[in-house]
Design a protein that fits this description.
homodimer; alpha/beta; Rossmann fold; 2 domains; four-stranded parallel sheet; 9 strands; globular
Chain lengths: 279, 279
């Protein structure tokens, strides 16, 4: 059976659209863009499309590739202070002349819809919901809850441990009451863990690493993988054989991806509501 | 074999004492105390003893039990701005009239030696070493590294998921390259996990929950448990039978406890050095 992220995201968008209509003023999502490669532009296009659909203003802040770190920090301070901007993201990659770490510390935690500030990261660790949540992990949790998949007491295996997916997702699952195993590229035999998992969530970027042989028929597979082979988008799971085996599985594309963008919009509405003191 | 935390802590103290002597000015550790029950006073006594041994100034800031939240916040701001205070901790418990959450947010992340501010918590999540680390988890990591126990590729099971031990320890282990399983009180059968663990780290407060039957002979047991039965201090592990089986194990007391206090002193020296711009 397919866990249809695209369909669930569409339902979330319907609900968010009504929320935006009921607001006294529309939220604004800002995108700071320096390096405009085709992949980044594709992601930005998706964000713009859904922001506009929801009635969220979309503002692109484009800066030259030779912008100094100091100048960029000043522009970020301007966004922090601009009452018209509800939340904003800094589109990666950044030029090598800019120190990513010192830039993300400048983002106001209140406008940090892409979860880059340590204050929001810390709130995720301790389960403090007054912060903002990383979009992809939030999308996975929303997908599970929408499908009434309770994680309490379940064994969830998370593959790998990136700062934007694996680690925050591990924390959200722990906070939700799951028994969680975090695997990484040094884990000697991932099947030792996946074979005994109720849910496997894979974000390795290695196409086909999750096969039907390393899971049980009852294992739910959430595929956060994304890689390109000859222009074809691939997930981490061997979707066909796992789907044929009867497992519940998210497709790639159309699984976690749409949920991620929906969560970015949700974060933007949240920051706007908080700035209006209605949340 | 015994993992002798007391002995390792003593070695750390020797090294820290030399560090303090080489500083242009001594660090100062502050303790904010409101509710002075006997257990708190015992902990404070330990901290004072070791601070003085190291040459760290020790300042007790005692406030009346009916202090208002507003007044306490002002006192915390004073500590944040006081250049003589390198780092400080707020001794728990607090009276019920004080909101713990809003108080911890007031602590300057730069002086947060007990790891209560979300900014330090977030830095632990993403593995950013410019922050401070929770004392007990840091003590466990230090104990493992001192004993040359490499966690890369090892399976470590962490029992339970508190905000001060289980969760930050899980993150430190993940960052260090371990495969980590986080168990909680809803985990159906902990032996499923502990039986296949290279290292079990238990912080449940349930005396005797770790028995020799649920681990292998090669499993290293780190006991962070602490409970009192008829005045006797008990750890989580059935120490005698596990020790007899030949496992490497920390005793309680004299295992992780001394490491925790040593890490508080280390954090205090770190904050002081950073404020002097020599770190």
């Amino acid at each position: 059976m397919i866990l249809d992220g695209k369909k669930i995201a569409a339902e979330i968008y319907s609900s968010l659209k009504i929320q935006v209509q009921e607001l006294p003023t529309p939220p604004t999502l800002g995108i700071v863009l320096i390096w405009s490669d085709p992949v980044s532009m594709r992601y930005i296009g998706q964000k713009e499309k859904w922001a506009k659909y929801l009635g969220i203003n979309f503002e692109l802040y484009k800066f030259p590739i030779d912008i100094s770190e100091e100048h960029l920090k000043q522009e970020i301070q301007n966004l922090n202070q601009n009452p018209k901007v509800s939340g904003y993201i800094i589109q990666f990659p950044l030029p090598k002349t800019i120190d990513l770490h010192s830039i993300t510390q400048e983002i106001s935690p209140l406008k940090d819809v892409d979860w880059f500030h340590p204050e929001n990261q810390g709130k995720t660790l301790i389960g403090d919901t007054s912060g903002l949540t990383a979009c992809t992990p939030a999308g996975v949790m929303e997908l599970l809850s929408t499908e009434n998949i309770d994680v309490v007491g379940k064994h969830v295996v998370v593959l790998w441990k990136s700062n934007i997916v694996g680690k925050p997702l591990t924390m959200l699952l722990i906070n939700a009451g799951a028994t969680v195993t975090s695997c990484n590229s040094k884990t000697s035999n991932i099947s030792t863990y996946t074979k005994h998992a109720d849910i496997v969530i894979s974000a390795t970027g290695i196409a086909g690493i999750i096969t039907k042989d390393i899971i049980q028929e009852s294992t739910i597979v959430i595929d956060v993988g994304f890689s390109l082979y000859d222009g074809v988008i691939m997930g981490d799971a061997n979707f066909t054989e796992i789907h044929e085996q009867g497992n519940l599985i998210t497709p790639v594309p159309g699984g976690v991806g749409p949920m991620t963008v929906a969560m970015l919009m949700k974060n933007t509405i949240t920051t706007h509501k908080r700035q209006l003191w209605i949340l």
